[in-house]
Specification:
Blueprint: H1 14-20, H2 65-78, E1 82-86, H3 89-98, E2 106-110, H4 115-127, E3 131-135, E4 151-157, H5 169-178, E5 182-186, H6 191-194, E6 204-208, E7 222-226, H7 231-241, H8 247-258, H9 260-279, E8 284-288, H10 298-304, E9 311-316, H11 322-331, E10 336-337, E11 347-351, E12 368-372, H12 378-393
Parallel strand pairs: 2-3, 2-4, 4-5, 5-6, 10-11
Antiparallel strand pairs: 1-7, 6-7, 8-9, 9-12, 11-12
The structure holds pyridoxal-5'-phosphate.
Pyridoxal-5'-phosphate (PLP) binds next to α3.
Length: 394
Protein backbone atom coordinates (compact mmCIF):
# COMPACT_ATOMS: atom_id res chain seq x y z
CA UNK A 1 0.00 0.00 0.00
CA UNK A 2 1.22 3.47 -0.85
CA UNK A 3 1.45 5.50 2.36
CA UNK A 4 3.11 8.52 0.84
CA UNK A 5 1.43 11.91 0.70
CA UNK A 6 -1.12 12.12 -2.05
CA UNK A 7 0.30 15.01 -3.99
CA UNK A 8 -2.66 16.81 -5.56
CA UNK A 9 -2.60 16.35 -9.30
CA UNK A 10 -4.61 18.57 -11.56
CA UNK A 11 -6.08 15.70 -13.55
CA UNK A 12 -7.69 13.87 -10.62
CA UNK A 13 -11.45 13.54 -10.78
CA UNK A 14 -13.65 14.86 -7.96
CA UNK A 15 -14.46 11.44 -6.45
CA UNK A 16 -10.76 10.61 -6.28
CA UNK A 17 -10.03 13.92 -4.56
CA UNK A 18 -12.85 13.35 -2.06
CA UNK A 19 -11.30 10.01 -1.14
CA UNK A 20 -7.68 11.11 -0.79
CA UNK A 21 -7.54 14.89 -0.21
CA UNK A 22 -6.21 16.05 3.17
CA UNK A 23 -4.94 12.60 4.16
CA UNK A 24 -1.32 11.73 4.86
CA UNK A 25 -1.20 8.27 6.49
CA UNK A 26 2.62 8.22 6.45
CA UNK A 27 2.65 11.11 8.92
CA UNK A 28 0.44 9.20 11.36
CA UNK A 29 1.94 5.69 11.51
CA UNK A 30 -0.11 4.57 8.51
CA UNK A 31 -3.54 5.15 10.03
CA UNK A 32 -5.98 6.01 7.28
CA UNK A 33 -7.46 9.07 9.04
CA UNK A 34 -5.69 11.97 10.77
CA UNK A 35 -5.77 12.11 14.58
CA UNK A 36 -8.30 14.29 16.41
CA UNK A 37 -5.87 16.68 18.07
CA UNK A 38 -7.29 18.37 21.17
CA UNK A 39 -4.84 21.18 21.74
CA UNK A 40 -4.10 24.65 22.96
CA UNK A 41 -0.42 24.64 23.99
CA UNK A 42 2.30 23.29 21.71
CA UNK A 43 5.63 22.56 23.42
CA UNK A 44 8.88 23.58 21.72
CA UNK A 45 12.20 21.75 22.22
CA UNK A 46 14.16 25.03 22.51
CA UNK A 47 13.83 28.80 22.04
CA UNK A 48 15.13 28.66 18.46
CA UNK A 49 12.07 26.60 17.55
CA UNK A 50 9.87 29.40 18.93
CA UNK A 51 11.13 31.94 16.36
CA UNK A 52 8.52 33.03 13.79
CA UNK A 53 8.25 30.49 11.00
CA UNK A 54 10.56 27.97 12.67
CA UNK A 55 7.89 25.44 13.64
CA UNK A 56 4.93 24.03 11.75
CA UNK A 57 2.56 24.19 14.73
CA UNK A 58 2.72 26.93 17.35
CA UNK A 59 -0.63 27.14 19.14
CA UNK A 60 -3.96 25.32 18.90
CA UNK A 61 -5.88 28.30 17.55
CA UNK A 62 -3.33 28.72 14.76
CA UNK A 63 -3.90 25.23 13.35
CA UNK A 64 -3.51 21.55 14.17
CA UNK A 65 -3.09 18.41 12.03
CA UNK A 66 -6.88 17.99 12.30
CA UNK A 67 -7.85 21.48 11.11
CA UNK A 68 -5.19 21.38 8.40
CA UNK A 69 -6.53 18.08 7.09
CA UNK A 70 -9.99 19.56 6.48
CA UNK A 71 -8.61 22.85 5.13
CA UNK A 72 -6.34 21.00 2.70
CA UNK A 73 -9.14 18.71 1.57
CA UNK A 74 -11.52 21.62 0.91
CA UNK A 75 -8.77 23.60 -0.88
CA UNK A 76 -8.13 20.68 -3.18
CA UNK A 77 -11.81 20.17 -3.86
CA UNK A 78 -12.40 23.89 -4.51
CA UNK A 79 -9.16 24.47 -6.44
CA UNK A 80 -8.31 27.17 -3.87
CA UNK A 81 -5.11 28.95 -2.82
CA UNK A 82 -6.21 28.24 0.75
CA UNK A 83 -9.19 27.53 2.99
CA UNK A 84 -10.16 28.70 6.48
CA UNK A 85 -12.69 27.06 8.79
CA UNK A 86 -15.49 28.88 10.58
CA UNK A 87 -17.78 27.92 13.43
CA UNK A 88 -20.93 27.83 11.26
CA UNK A 89 -22.01 28.65 7.74
CA UNK A 90 -23.09 32.11 8.83
CA UNK A 91 -19.74 32.60 10.56
CA UNK A 92 -18.04 31.69 7.26
CA UNK A 93 -20.12 34.37 5.51
CA UNK A 94 -19.11 36.92 8.19
CA UNK A 95 -15.45 35.92 7.84
CA UNK A 96 -15.55 36.23 4.04
CA UNK A 97 -17.28 39.64 4.16
CA UNK A 98 -14.94 41.08 6.79
CA UNK A 99 -11.91 39.89 4.83
CA UNK A 100 -12.72 42.11 1.84
CA UNK A 101 -14.75 45.08 3.16
CA UNK A 102 -13.83 48.28 5.01
CA UNK A 103 -15.58 51.49 6.08
CA UNK A 104 -16.92 53.48 3.13
CA UNK A 105 -17.22 50.49 0.81
CA UNK A 106 -20.27 49.78 -1.35
CA UNK A 107 -21.31 46.10 -1.16
CA UNK A 108 -23.63 44.54 -3.74
CA UNK A 109 -25.58 41.61 -2.30
CA UNK A 110 -27.99 39.42 -4.23
CA UNK A 111 -31.59 39.93 -3.09
CA UNK A 112 -32.06 36.16 -2.75
CA UNK A 113 -29.20 35.67 -0.29
CA UNK A 114 -29.71 33.52 2.80
CA UNK A 115 -31.76 35.62 5.27
CA UNK A 116 -29.15 35.88 8.04
CA UNK A 117 -26.66 37.20 5.45
CA UNK A 118 -28.95 40.22 5.13
CA UNK A 119 -29.02 40.55 8.91
CA UNK A 120 -25.22 40.70 8.90
CA UNK A 121 -25.29 43.45 6.26
CA UNK A 122 -27.92 45.47 8.09
CA UNK A 123 -26.31 45.28 11.54
CA UNK A 124 -22.58 44.60 11.87
CA UNK A 125 -21.57 45.73 8.36
CA UNK A 126 -23.79 48.82 8.57
CA UNK A 127 -22.15 49.76 11.87
CA UNK A 128 -18.76 49.44 10.17
CA UNK A 129 -20.09 51.89 7.55
CA UNK A 130 -20.26 49.35 4.72
CA UNK A 131 -23.17 50.32 2.49
CA UNK A 132 -25.12 47.30 1.24
CA UNK A 133 -27.23 47.48 -1.91
CA UNK A 134 -29.38 44.48 -2.84
CA UNK A 135 -29.65 43.49 -6.50
CA UNK A 136 -32.00 41.40 -8.60
CA UNK A 137 -30.54 37.87 -9.13
CA UNK A 138 -31.45 38.03 -12.83
CA UNK A 139 -29.24 41.09 -13.51
CA UNK A 140 -26.24 38.89 -14.34
CA UNK A 141 -23.74 40.94 -16.44
CA UNK A 142 -25.99 44.00 -16.20
CA UNK A 143 -24.86 44.33 -12.58
CA UNK A 144 -22.34 46.81 -14.05
CA UNK A 145 -25.13 49.40 -13.94
CA UNK A 146 -24.93 49.39 -10.14
CA UNK A 147 -21.17 49.80 -9.84
CA UNK A 148 -19.83 52.85 -8.04
CA UNK A 149 -16.29 54.06 -7.41
CA UNK A 150 -16.58 52.56 -3.94
CA UNK A 151 -17.93 49.14 -4.96
CA UNK A 152 -15.54 46.72 -3.25
CA UNK A 153 -17.33 43.38 -3.39
CA UNK A 154 -20.25 41.50 -4.94
CA UNK A 155 -22.03 38.74 -3.02
CA UNK A 156 -23.68 35.95 -5.02
CA UNK A 157 -25.69 32.86 -4.19
CA UNK A 158 -27.09 30.37 -6.71
CA UNK A 159 -29.68 29.11 -6.62
CA UNK A 160 -31.17 31.70 -4.25
CA UNK A 161 -32.28 30.79 -0.75
CA UNK A 162 -35.93 29.66 -0.55
CA UNK A 163 -36.85 30.84 -4.08
CA UNK A 164 -34.11 29.11 -6.14
CA UNK A 165 -33.34 31.71 -8.83
CA UNK A 166 -30.13 30.94 -10.71
CA UNK A 167 -27.42 33.56 -11.33
CA UNK A 168 -24.95 33.76 -14.22
CA UNK A 169 -21.94 33.57 -11.90
CA UNK A 170 -19.27 33.82 -14.65
CA UNK A 171 -20.95 36.99 -16.01
CA UNK A 172 -21.22 38.62 -12.57
CA UNK A 173 -17.62 37.67 -11.76
CA UNK A 174 -16.30 39.00 -15.09
CA UNK A 175 -18.08 42.32 -14.52
CA UNK A 176 -16.79 42.61 -10.95
CA UNK A 177 -13.24 41.91 -12.05
CA UNK A 178 -13.36 44.84 -14.49
CA UNK A 179 -13.47 47.16 -11.46
CA UNK A 180 -11.30 45.00 -9.21
CA UNK A 181 -14.18 44.11 -6.87
CA UNK A 182 -14.01 40.86 -4.92
CA UNK A 183 -16.64 38.23 -5.72
CA UNK A 184 -18.13 36.12 -2.94
CA UNK A 185 -20.40 33.13 -3.43
CA UNK A 186 -22.51 31.16 -0.99
CA UNK A 187 -22.30 27.81 -2.81
CA UNK A 188 -23.91 25.65 -0.13
CA UNK A 189 -26.61 24.27 -2.45
CA UNK A 190 -24.36 22.77 -5.13
CA UNK A 191 -21.25 22.18 -3.00
CA UNK A 192 -17.88 22.21 -4.81
CA UNK A 193 -18.73 18.75 -6.12
CA UNK A 194 -21.27 20.22 -8.57
CA UNK A 195 -19.96 23.77 -8.97
CA UNK A 196 -16.46 25.09 -8.35
CA UNK A 197 -16.89 28.87 -7.87
CA UNK A 198 -13.19 29.69 -8.07
CA UNK A 199 -13.02 28.19 -11.59
CA UNK A 200 -15.68 30.74 -12.62
CA UNK A 201 -14.03 33.91 -11.31
CA UNK A 202 -15.24 33.86 -7.69
CA UNK A 203 -12.66 34.91 -5.05
CA UNK A 204 -14.25 33.64 -1.83
CA UNK A 205 -16.26 30.41 -2.02
CA UNK A 206 -18.42 29.86 1.06
CA UNK A 207 -19.89 26.57 2.28
CA UNK A 208 -22.24 26.03 5.18
CA UNK A 209 -20.49 22.72 5.93
CA UNK A 210 -23.32 22.16 8.39
CA UNK A 211 -25.40 21.03 5.40
CA UNK A 212 -23.99 18.50 2.93
CA UNK A 213 -20.34 18.27 3.98
CA UNK A 214 -21.27 17.14 7.49
CA UNK A 215 -24.36 15.45 6.09
CA UNK A 216 -25.72 14.01 9.33
CA UNK A 217 -27.41 17.00 11.06
CA UNK A 218 -25.03 16.83 14.00
CA UNK A 219 -22.35 19.53 13.52
CA UNK A 220 -22.23 23.23 12.66
CA UNK A 221 -19.21 24.35 10.64
CA UNK A 222 -18.35 26.62 7.70
CA UNK A 223 -15.56 26.90 5.16
CA UNK A 224 -14.21 29.77 3.08
CA UNK A 225 -11.96 28.87 0.14
CA UNK A 226 -9.97 31.71 -1.43
CA UNK A 227 -8.45 32.62 -4.78
CA UNK A 228 -4.79 33.72 -4.83
CA UNK A 229 -5.71 37.39 -4.57
CA UNK A 230 -8.19 36.88 -1.70
CA UNK A 231 -6.09 34.46 0.34
CA UNK A 232 -3.77 36.86 2.26
CA UNK A 233 -6.71 38.93 3.54
CA UNK A 234 -8.73 35.84 4.42
CA UNK A 235 -5.85 34.46 6.47
CA UNK A 236 -5.31 37.78 8.28
CA UNK A 237 -8.99 38.24 9.05
CA UNK A 238 -9.39 34.67 10.28
CA UNK A 239 -6.44 35.21 12.62
CA UNK A 240 -7.73 38.57 13.82
CA UNK A 241 -11.16 37.10 14.62
CA UNK A 242 -9.56 34.34 16.68
CA UNK A 243 -11.68 31.71 14.99
CA UNK A 244 -11.19 28.12 15.97
CA UNK A 245 -13.39 25.09 15.38
CA UNK A 246 -13.24 22.23 17.89
CA UNK A 247 -11.39 19.14 16.65
CA UNK A 248 -14.29 16.71 17.05
CA UNK A 249 -16.46 18.87 14.80
CA UNK A 250 -13.65 19.24 12.27
CA UNK A 251 -13.18 15.49 12.28
CA UNK A 252 -16.89 14.82 11.68
CA UNK A 253 -16.86 17.27 8.75
CA UNK A 254 -13.85 15.47 7.27
CA UNK A 255 -15.62 12.15 7.68
CA UNK A 256 -18.73 13.53 6.00
CA UNK A 257 -16.67 14.89 3.12
CA UNK A 258 -15.52 11.40 2.11
CA UNK A 259 -19.06 10.34 1.17
CA UNK A 260 -20.27 13.73 -0.09
CA UNK A 261 -20.60 12.80 -3.73
CA UNK A 262 -22.36 9.45 -3.25
CA UNK A 263 -24.86 11.05 -0.87
CA UNK A 264 -25.46 13.98 -3.21
CA UNK A 265 -26.17 11.66 -6.12
CA UNK A 266 -28.92 9.90 -4.17
CA UNK A 267 -30.32 13.15 -2.73
CA UNK A 268 -30.58 14.48 -6.30
CA UNK A 269 -32.17 11.41 -7.86
CA UNK A 270 -34.68 11.17 -5.01
CA UNK A 271 -35.41 14.90 -5.25
CA UNK A 272 -35.97 14.73 -8.99
CA UNK A 273 -38.37 11.79 -8.60
CA UNK A 274 -40.31 13.64 -5.90
CA UNK A 275 -40.31 16.96 -7.82
CA UNK A 276 -41.54 15.24 -11.00
CA UNK A 277 -44.35 13.59 -9.05
CA UNK A 278 -45.31 16.86 -7.34
CA UNK A 279 -45.36 18.71 -10.68
CA UNK A 280 -48.25 16.47 -11.76
CA UNK A 281 -50.44 17.22 -8.70
CA UNK A 282 -53.41 19.51 -9.38
CA UNK A 283 -52.72 21.42 -6.13
CA UNK A 284 -49.19 22.36 -7.28
CA UNK A 285 -48.61 25.39 -9.52
CA UNK A 286 -44.82 25.38 -9.92
CA UNK A 287 -41.65 23.61 -8.84
CA UNK A 288 -38.61 25.69 -8.00
CA UNK A 289 -35.71 23.37 -8.86
CA UNK A 290 -33.11 24.36 -11.49
CA UNK A 291 -32.49 20.68 -12.30
CA UNK A 292 -35.96 20.47 -13.90
CA UNK A 293 -36.27 21.52 -17.54
CA UNK A 294 -39.25 23.82 -16.81
CA UNK A 295 -37.31 25.91 -14.28
CA UNK A 296 -36.40 29.46 -15.46
CA UNK A 297 -32.80 28.86 -14.30
CA UNK A 298 -32.44 25.48 -15.97
CA UNK A 299 -30.25 26.65 -18.89
CA UNK A 300 -27.74 28.37 -16.57
CA UNK A 301 -27.74 25.39 -14.23
CA UNK A 302 -27.12 23.02 -17.13
CA UNK A 303 -24.34 25.18 -18.53
CA UNK A 304 -22.40 25.71 -15.27
CA UNK A 305 -23.34 23.05 -12.72
CA UNK A 306 -22.65 19.32 -13.01
CA UNK A 307 -25.42 18.23 -10.65
CA UNK A 308 -28.15 19.23 -8.23
CA UNK A 309 -28.68 18.69 -4.54
CA UNK A 310 -31.82 17.53 -2.78
CA UNK A 311 -33.26 20.94 -1.88
CA UNK A 312 -36.11 22.58 -3.78
CA UNK A 313 -39.41 24.39 -3.23
CA UNK A 314 -42.85 24.29 -4.76
CA UNK A 315 -45.77 26.71 -4.96
CA UNK A 316 -49.34 25.69 -4.37
CA UNK A 317 -52.03 26.89 -6.79
CA UNK A 318 -53.43 30.31 -5.76
CA UNK A 319 -56.63 28.81 -4.29
CA UNK A 320 -54.66 27.07 -1.51
CA UNK A 321 -54.84 29.18 1.63
CA UNK A 322 -52.12 29.74 4.20
CA UNK A 323 -54.05 27.63 6.71
CA UNK A 324 -54.24 24.76 4.19
CA UNK A 325 -50.53 24.99 3.40
CA UNK A 326 -49.71 24.83 7.11
CA UNK A 327 -52.15 21.94 7.54
CA UNK A 328 -50.28 20.12 4.76
CA UNK A 329 -47.01 20.57 6.65
CA UNK A 330 -48.57 19.46 9.92
CA UNK A 331 -49.92 16.31 8.21
CA UNK A 332 -46.47 15.13 7.07
CA UNK A 333 -45.25 12.07 8.97
CA UNK A 334 -41.95 11.06 7.38
CA UNK A 335 -40.74 14.63 6.80
CA UNK A 336 -39.44 16.49 9.82
CA UNK A 337 -40.38 20.13 10.29
CA UNK A 338 -37.08 21.85 10.83
CA UNK A 339 -34.61 24.43 9.62
CA UNK A 340 -31.39 23.48 7.99
CA UNK A 341 -30.96 20.71 5.44
CA UNK A 342 -28.22 18.55 3.93
CA UNK A 343 -28.58 15.75 6.46
CA UNK A 344 -29.68 12.23 5.53
CA UNK A 345 -33.32 12.90 6.40
CA UNK A 346 -36.21 14.63 4.66
CA UNK A 347 -37.30 18.02 6.01
CA UNK A 348 -39.97 20.59 5.17
CA UNK A 349 -40.59 24.25 6.05
CA UNK A 350 -43.10 26.87 4.97
CA UNK A 351 -41.53 29.56 2.76
CA UNK A 352 -42.16 33.20 3.63
CA UNK A 353 -40.39 35.78 1.45
CA UNK A 354 -42.17 38.77 3.01
CA UNK A 355 -39.62 41.12 4.50
CA UNK A 356 -36.56 39.32 3.12
CA UNK A 357 -36.71 40.65 -0.45
CA UNK A 358 -36.28 44.34 -1.26
CA UNK A 359 -34.82 44.58 -4.78
CA UNK A 360 -37.40 42.22 -6.27
CA UNK A 361 -41.11 41.75 -5.73
CA UNK A 362 -41.79 38.07 -4.97
CA UNK A 363 -45.25 36.67 -5.69
CA UNK A 364 -46.70 36.64 -2.20
CA UNK A 365 -50.11 35.46 -3.34
CA UNK A 366 -49.05 31.81 -3.43
CA UNK A 367 -48.19 29.55 -0.54
CA UNK A 368 -44.82 27.81 -0.92
CA UNK A 369 -43.06 24.95 0.80
CA UNK A 370 -39.37 24.09 0.80
CA UNK A 371 -38.44 20.41 0.88
CA UNK A 372 -35.15 18.76 1.60
CA UNK A 373 -35.30 15.29 0.11
CA UNK A 374 -33.38 12.80 2.21
CA UNK A 375 -32.03 9.33 1.62
CA UNK A 376 -35.29 7.49 2.36
CA UNK A 377 -36.84 5.41 -0.44
CA UNK A 378 -38.52 7.95 -2.75
CA UNK A 379 -41.66 5.80 -2.87
CA UNK A 380 -42.11 6.32 0.88
CA UNK A 381 -41.38 10.05 0.55
CA UNK A 382 -43.99 10.38 -2.20
CA UNK A 383 -46.52 8.36 -0.18
CA UNK A 384 -46.06 10.77 2.74
CA UNK A 385 -46.58 13.81 0.50
CA UNK A 386 -49.64 12.17 -1.06
CA UNK A 387 -51.30 11.46 2.28
CA UNK A 388 -50.54 14.99 3.52
CA UNK A 389 -52.01 16.56 0.36
CA UNK A 390 -55.09 14.37 0.77
CA UNK A 391 -55.45 15.20 4.48
CA UNK A 392 -54.97 18.96 4.12
CA UNK A 393 -56.41 19.71 0.70
CA UNK A 394 -58.69 16.79 -0.08
C1 LIG B 1 -27.86 27.12 6.38
C2 LIG B 1 -27.25 28.06 5.43
C3 LIG B 1 -26.25 28.93 5.83
C4 LIG B 1 -25.79 29.04 7.27
O1 LIG B 1 -25.22 27.88 7.78
P1 LIG B 1 -25.21 27.66 9.37
O2 LIG B 1 -24.19 26.59 9.54
O3 LIG B 1 -26.60 27.26 9.73
O4 LIG B 1 -24.81 28.95 10.00
C5 LIG B 1 -25.69 29.76 4.89
N1 LIG B 1 -26.09 29.74 3.61
C6 LIG B 1 -27.06 28.92 3.18
C7 LIG B 1 -27.45 28.95 1.75
C8 LIG B 1 -27.68 28.05 4.07
O5 LIG B 1 -28.67 27.28 3.66
Amino acid sequence: MNMSKNAPTTDQKTDTRLTHAGRDPASFHGFVNPPVVHASTVLFPDTASMAPGASRYVYGRRGTPTTEALEDAVSELEGAAGTKLATSGLNAITLACLSCLKAGDHFLVVDTAYGPTRHLCETLLARLRVETEYYDPTLNGDIRRLFRDTTAAVFTEAPGSLSFEMQDIPAVAAAAREIGAMVLMDNTWATPVYFRPLDHGVDLSIQAGTKYIVGHSDVMIGTVAASERAWPQLQDTHGAMGLHVGPDDVYLALRGLRTLSVRLERHASNALAVADWLAERPQVAAIRYPARADDPGHALWKRDFSGASGLFAFDFVPSVTKAQALAFLDALKLFGLGYSWGGFESLAIPVRLQGIRTATAPDNTRQSVRLHIGLEDPRDIIADLAQALETALG
